[in-house]
Amino acid sequence: MEPDLFTAAAEERQEKDPTGSPLAVRMRPRTLDEVVGQQHLLKPGSPLRRLVGQGAKGPAGPSSVILWGPPGTGKTTLAYVVSKATDKRFVELSAITAGVKEVRAVIDGARRASGGYGKETVLFLDEIHRFSKAQQDSLLPAVENRWVTLIAATTENPYFSVISPLLSRSLLLTLESLTDDDVRGLLRRALTEERGLNGAVTLPEDTENHLLRIAGGDARRALTALEAAAGAALDKGETEIALTTLEETVDRGAVKYDRDGDQHYDVASALIKSIRGSDVDAALHYLARMIEAGEDPRFIARRLMISASEDIGLADPQALPIAVAAAQAVAMIGFPEAALTLSHATIALALAPKSNSATTAIGAALDDVRKGLAGPVPPHLRDGHYQGAAKLGHAQGYVYPHDLPEGIAEQQYAPDALKDRAYYTPSRHGAEARYADAVEWTRAHLGRKRS
Predict the structure, then answer these.
(1) What is the pLDDT of residues 382-426, one digit of tens each?
(2) May I ask the CATH class of domain 180-250?
(3) Which residue ranges make up each domain of the chain?
(4) Closest C-alpha to 54, from 86, 99, 12
(5) Beta carbons of 52 and 61 less than 8 angstroms apart
(6) Segment Disordered: which positions (predicted)?
(7) Which of 117, 326, 422, 439 has the lowest CB atom count within 10 Å?
(8) Model-level pTM?
(9) How far is Cα 41 from Cα 48, in angstroms, rounded to an integer?
(10) 5 contacts: CB under 8 Å, gap ≥ 6
């Protein structure tokens, strides 16, 4: 039998007994206007609206769409809404359990339905990245000939996980993580709407805030936790979901952490100071608090990049590349996997040898500039590439260091007022010891007197 999770019979059963379905299923939007978030994909004339025939002008909507985004952002929901809005057959397959045989069965069924009943088919393929190349190849004839409208979903980068022939025939739409306001609006609708909890319970502000932290931008997770907590509250004979009830239900304590207030900055400060102090365990504790409280992983990654230069610098030249790589990885993968990347970088930075020489060097140089200690650029260093520069004495007398055996020329580089100023004072920690030797040697060969 052809797999079809959203058959007319199943929909009819759900409408007759909505309480028999999970809250996340009952609250699934029925139209594009009910979809939470993703407004960049739902503007008038957008591909999704053209796909369902809303405001279509000119060519028909795309025959194949790939939805790429984190879990819980509405990929299945969008596919379901398309099928409802267009009155097409809707068939869902999961790449975890389906294979080429199931795909061919759906395609054959779609061709029969199209020829016999004139009804088109939407094939929703979840987690397409789990399909092998051969399995993805089996979709190409159906997409090429428009036997089905394919809507494929993936949480992984489709440029790496989807074969190029299928990707080139599809419209790629990127879904964004839901904001707290998006999820908050959905929760409040679920509390009051008849198909939701129908006013059976209320959600105080502290419980709602903890629920938002648990959700982490995942609508499905938020509704599942709300349903479980509501059931626990009603079992106690309570109509308000207390924070303690939610904590007991999801087995997750509420972290005292205000992402917009003092705790946000206090814990971030403690993380950086623990790294600076080389206490890897304390640093991991504060990192865990920030992660558990739902802190933006990009904020954490930015702090780590600053720490790599501010407190480690040349004592471990690999610290900054590690922090930058972590920030790039975090931007690509997001939570929960980003926790591993942030842990990796935090441990590396905490255990690295420390030096603040880069911080003090630029601080001293900026201080002199702000005091007005600048002066003109020495004539031999000025640009001599334009006509008339030589008459002004620009670049005259400049010695090209590469022409000398030791690669360094004894000539003045700084303005007169700063010619003997030394800003960089290297430590002898870790790899910076070699920079300490190098700076002594170069200053001596430049004929510099340290001030």
Answers:
(1) 776 676 666 676 767 777 777 777 777 777 777 777 777 777 778
(2) mainly alpha
(3) 8-174, 180-250, 276-351, 362-445
(4) 86
(5) yes
(6) 1-24
(7) 117
(8) 0.51
(9) 7
(10) 91, 92
